[in-house]
Amino acid sequence: MPIHGQDSDLQKRYDHISDLRNQGYELVHSAHGGHGDLAKAETLLQEAIAQADQFLSSQAATEDLWAQADSRRSESLIFLAEAYALKGDKNAALNALETMQSSGLYLFHEKILEQSAGLKSLHDEPRFKALMDRYKHMESRWNASALNGQTENLDEAHRIAGLSLFWSEARYNFAHFDNVPDLDWNQAYLDYLPRVIAAKTTHDYYDVMMQFASLLHDGHTHVVPPRAIVNEFWATPAISTSLVEEKVIVTALRSPATRASGLHVGDEIVSIDGQDVRTYALTKVNPYVDSSSPQDRIATMYGRRLLAGDHRQPVTLGIVDAAGHSHSVTLSREGDPHADALSPVVWRMLDGDIAYLAVNEFGDDAGVKAFEQHLPEILHAKGLIIDVRRNGGGSTQNGAAILSYLDKKPIPLSAAVSMDYVPVFRAWQGPYVLWKPVGPAQPYSVERKQHYEGPVAVLIGPYTFSAAEDFVVSFDSMKRGTLLGEATGGSTGQPLTIDLPGGGKGWICSKNDTYPDGRVFVGKGISPAMIIKPTVEDVRNNRDPVIDGATELLRKRDAMTASR
């Protein structure tokens, strides 16, 4: 991608620092085999550090480029210390490491220093031990091992400590307090203290903690129970349900057992364990839902969490079938090894020469590989549908890689900020909120030999989430095609993960993402240009009106293009 003006100069300066660092690294690490030139490595690395210091003092550098340059500086100091140590100059090596620590500590550096073969001669040096102690002290401070060490029979002190830790971490790091303006987080902490004190078992404690986290109404912020008891909360029968035309409908039977249970796709669930289904959802499910948007809350309450519960307790559904007949079905929540797995990708050619690719996760590059595998067919298709309605996220990079085949121009990425807290600012001026840009400095750019130039439709819905929403933001910003379906879940970001007493985890969203132009979608979702929702009859007749609508739209657009 071409870069112009001052940005180009900054990029060149950063690239020069990286080149110096890389050359120094190669010389130092080849020295282990006796082939390196340590004197040359020292010169290159010292120059890299000097150039980085100048770059970091520049007010013009973007936050992302500044952070990258800071990392190159730290790495150069580590490699310089290795060069000195390999020459036997322990004092100079320790000086370099102390210089690195003086500007900041990053815990991941501890393992780098411990595992570096070039620094082994320093391990018994008091100054090196003091440096490593600083990392251990920092780890103890931030990872709070003293608070979460107990794993069974949680005592009152540890229960309170866990609540306090999650409350405190969210207070300083949660990125979306603006989305819960009516929540008094400090009062909520006081309200929940008696509840965690009263929770005598680990199960009861995590029941309370999950409800506490859900008060923040954020899909990337929640409490996860310990692995040993997770199936006491989230075990579900192998069926799928959804709220369709204000009715709770069975939309899929995902195992031989459920297909033989007497249930049918399209059946309406009217009760759960003898309780009206709406009342059940509001009282048994809603208190634990951590959704960011109304549509995600509805999808979660009446979909993926509706039947979740203790694996040891079956669930009884009151059913009204398509003919209006009532009956009940009891389903096991125990894990079924024969349950259908969601395929990461689904590919097929539709009538009218329309290519269809469902990418159901971005956790790996399966979607990218499938797109590349079928690229010859896509290039000759009269239209392309990319379906991310069931995509819960993963890596934004994988989505951008697919989009790079749809346009020769670089792919715009979402912007992001995180809170920047400086204690002395609060001491000087009182409470404040300061946002620091942390998003990518440049759009995603990779050269492709071939690009698909035909009409494109992307299918979205409330289960489109996280990195899949980043994909939708980029596609929408490209103006490359049409969004169809329902609004997305409205939640993406970077969770900060903390350990909790008993072995569970706390997730706190620490990043606020927007469109590149600043438009907000977290807490709201991304609305499609064409809203299409399935009806009960669609479900019962195995019709997908969203795919049908996209196919019809693409055929029309292809016909319009051909007639020009």
Topology:
Blueprint: H1 5-30, H2 38-56, H3 63-87, H4 90-102, H5 108-115, H6 126-143, H7 145-148, H8 156-173, H9 185-198, H10 202-214, E1 222-224, E2 239-244, E3 247-253, H11 256-259, E4 268-272, E5 275-276, H12 277-285, H13 294-304, E6 315-320, E7 326-331, E8 345-350, E9 354-359, H14 366-373, H15 375-379, E10 383-387, H16 396-403, E11 415-419, H17 423-429, E12 435-437, E13 456-460, H18 467-478, E14 482-485, E15 495-499, E16 505-509, E17 512-514, E18 530-531, H19 536-540, H20 545-563
Parallel strand pairs: 9-10, 10-13, 13-14, 14-18
Antiparallel strand pairs: 1-16, 2-3, 4-5, 4-6, 6-7, 8-9, 11-12, 11-17, 15-16
Helix pairs in contact: 1-2, 1-3, 2-3, 3-4, 8-9, 9-10, 14-16, 16-18
